[in-house]
Fold these 3 entries.
Entry 1:
Amino acid sequence: MIYIQMCSTYAPSWAFGGVVRILYGYAGHMAGRVDTWVLAGNLDERQRVVSSGFDDAQNYSVQRYGFLSRRLARRNIHTPSVRMLWDLVRLAKRHKGLVVLHLGELRGAVNLYALLARFVVGRRLRIIHSAFGGLHEKPSRLRAAYDRLLMGPFLKSLDLAIAQNEHEAGEYRQLMSAFGARASQDRISILPLHFDHPTSDRTGWFENGAKAPAARRAVRRALELPQEALIFCFLGRFHPKKGILRAIDLFCGWKAESGDDTAQFLIIGRDEGFEQEIRRHAANSAFPDSIRIITGIYAERFDYFYASDVFIGVPTMFEETMLASLEALSCGTPLLLSREADAPYIEEERAGRVIDFDLETAKAALKEIVGDYERFSRQALATSVHFERGPVLTALDALLSQLTEETVQHHARTPALGSDL
C-alpha cells in the first residue's frame, strides 16, 4: 500500500488550523508503516512560499505546488497547479498495489484532481475523506454551481468518510443522501481528533491525577496571571463564527451573578479580520478590565491551558470538535462547549458540559463546573487519554487495514476487472 495526502495547505503553516496539524500527525504515523507522500500547496498562512527545510526534515516525501492564482489564494480559494494531478497519477501508476488517497477538503481543485485520478487509475485508487468540520453549509453562488457539477460524483467516489463525532457522521449521511450517494452511507466511520503533548517540559504539572498546586502557581506566575483568580480561556481564530462575542457575554453574565471580582477571561488567538470587533465588544462589556486579548501565542498555548480553570468554546456554526479544546483537556482543564463544538466523551465522562447554547443555560453550566471544579478537572485529565496520539492513530490503522482487506476481497470476486484494481 502507498498512502498519499493531497491538500491545498499543509504544515508548517499551523495557523491554518487543526486540519493541518492532524494531517501532519497522520502522515508521520503512516510513514513508519508504508510509503507515504504529501502533495500540497506551497504557500503559508502569510502567503509566503514555504521553505524546503521543513519538508526535507520529514520522514516522508513532501511535494509542493504553486497556485494558479495567488489572488484567489488570499481569499482562501486554492487552485494548486495541475502538476499535482500529474504527480498523483504518476505515483499511482508506479505503485502496483493499493493506493490510498486521503483528502481533508470538500470542494476545490484538490477534489477535482482526486476524481480525475480515480478515472485514470481505477478503483485501485481508494479515496478517504476526513471532514474536519467542513460539512457545514456556507451558501454562495460559486459553491452552488460547484455542487451541481461535482459534489455528487465526489461523494459517490468515497471509499471511506471519517467523521469527528456523531453529529458530523449525521451530516455526512444527509449530504450523501442529498446528492444521491446513498450507497456510500455505510462507509462512514468516527475517528476523534488527536492531540500531541507539548515538547516543553511538563514535569510536575500533575500529581494524583490532578493539577499540582505548586506547578499551577509557577505557571501562572510566569504568565503574569493572578494566583487565586478563576481564569477562563478561549483559543482559536478571531473569526465572527467562533462565538467569541457570546463567550464574552457569557463570562460577564456569570461574573455578575457570581460576585467574583477576580475572575478573568483570556481570549487567545490569531486575527482573521475580527479582532477590532472583539476588542470593541470587550471594551463595552460590563467587565472590560477582566478580559484580556492575547495574540502571537503558539507553543506557549499549553501553559495558558494549564493555568486556566475552564476552556470556553461556543462557536455559532458547526465546526465540530475544536482541537484547542482537546489540548486544554490534556492539561486538566474542563470544557464548556456549545453543540457546534461537540467532542466525544465530554458529557459521558463529566469532563465538562456540551450544551445547546443560550445565555441562561450556558451560565448554569459554567456555574456547575465551577461549583464542582476538582471533580471536573480530574475527569478532564482522565478523559483526555481518548484523544492521545497512540489510541487514535491505532484506530486509523484499523480503518486502513479494513479498507485493504475489502479491496483484496473485491479483487477476488471480480477477476475480470483485475486491470482496474
Note: Residues 311 and 335 are 5 Å apart (CA to CA).
Entry 2:
Amino acid sequence: MLRTAEITAELTGEGLRGEQSHRLYWRGTLEVALDCFVCERIGRTTVFERGAERALCSGSRSGFKRHHTAARIAAFDTTDGRERLAVRALVDFWWAPFTDTRDGHKAAAPTSHPWVRLHLGYYCQDAKESGTNSIQTNAMRPNDLKCGHCDRVIAVDAQTPAVRLLV
C-alpha cells in the first residue's frame, strides 16, 4: 500500500538575516524511522535524497544489511524569509503488514509520530567555509544551531518537526 507523509519544520532567529547571515538552507536529505517490509524490521532509519527514485533502509545490525527500499521524496518546498526558514517535504513509501523477524512485533502503518531528521547547510563568511547541521524530532527545544567555525548562533530550532500521514 502506498503511503504519503508530510514533514514540515521551521527555524527562526536573528542569524537568518543581515550581514552576519550564514546563508542557511535546507539540504535535500532527510531521515525517517519507518517499518521496512523488505528486511521485515520495524523502526528502521530510512534515508531519503531529493531526486532519488528510491530510499536507503538501514537494515539490521545482524543479518540484513543496508538496502534500497520503495520510498522517495515526492515534493520538497522551502521558504526563506528574513526571520524564518521553513521546509515542507512529502515522502512516498510502500508499506505492507509483516511480523518483525527479530522480536515478533507487528508492523504498523505510521500512525504515531515517527522520528525524523532534517539536514541543513550553511556558509560561514568569517571562516570562508561551508558547514552542515541538522534538526530532529527527539531533540530538546528550544535549541540554538551554531556555526561549527565561528560558534555564532545561526538559527533557533524552537518547534519539533511535524509529521502528518496524508494517505
Note: The mean pLDDT is 90.
Entry 3:
Amino acid sequence: MPSDPSWVWRKLLSLRDLIFPIIKFKLGNGENVFLWHDNWHPFGSLLLRYGPRILYDTNLPDNSKEIQEWIAATPPSLKPSLDSPDIPVWSLTADGSFSIHSAWECWSNLIWGPPVIPRVSFIVWLAIHQRLNTGDRLQIFGLLTSPSCPLCCAPKENHSHLFFRCHYSSRIWAVIQAKCNSHWPSLPWLELVEFATKSINGKSLKSVIMKLSFLCTFYHIWMERNSRIFSKVFKPEEVVTNSIIQMVRGRLLSMENVKAYAGDNRYLEQWNLPSKILLQSQTAAAERNSSGLVVSLRSISYYGSKCLQNPEANEGEG
C-alpha cells in the first residue's frame, strides 16, 4: 500500500484478505501463478498454510508430514497445461467471472435478513471484517502488552483463534454441530465463512437452524469473552452452549412460515419444536377447513333440493 493513498483506494486494498480465498487460479502453463503465494492449491496459499519456512524447505525428505499431505491432496487436474494460460477464477459465479452482486451475496445472505437476530448479525459482520477488538488489535493500538486469550489463556488472541482455534470455543462448536446433525470442516477463518455461506443455503428448517446456530455461536463466544474481561465472570462451556441453544430455539418458536421438507420431524424432535412453525401444518389446516366447508355446502344443497321437490313434507321441519 502506498504511503499516501486516497480513502477509496485504501478501502479497496483493505479488502484483499477478504477477497483472496474467493479468487482461485486455474492452472495453465504456470507462467503467471506464484507457487507459494497464489491460491491455486486446495490448501490455499502454501506460504500462509506452512509459513515462511516452506520457501527454504524444498529439499525436505519425502517422509516430511506436511509435504506428504501437500502431495496427497493435489488432484491430477491441477497439473500444468503448457498449451493454455493461467486463469484467475471467481468461485462465486458459475462462469468464474467477477460480479459485485455475487460478492455482496456471499456474506449478506448468511448474516442479514430473516430469520437472523439483528444484534447477532452485527457482531458477526464485524467479526468477518476482523473489526472486533480482539487482543491482537488492541496490542496494535497500544492498549495491551500481552494479548492472551481470555478463554484458554493462549499467548495470542485474534479472530481465528478466538472463534475456532481456542479449546474452549472448539468444545462449544462440537456440541452445536452435533445438535445440528452437521459437521463443519477445519478451514482458515475466511474460507470457513465462505463454506458456511454456500452450505447454509435455502429456507428449509435444517438451513434455518444451521444458520441461526452458526451466528448465535459467534455471538455468545464473543459475549463470554467480554464477560471474562470486564465483569470477571467465568461461565463453563456447558452454560454458554445452553444459552446458544435457547437463543436459537426462542427465535424458531416465533416463526410460523418455514417451508416443510422431508426429515424435518427429526429437527423438530431434536430442538423440541412444535410442528406449527412449518408451513405445511398451516396448509393442511387450511385444506381441512376447506374440505369441511365443501361438506357443509353439499349438505345445504342436498336438503334444499329435497325441500323444493316436496315442500309439504318439510313444513314441520322448517
Note: The chain has 14 helices and two strands.
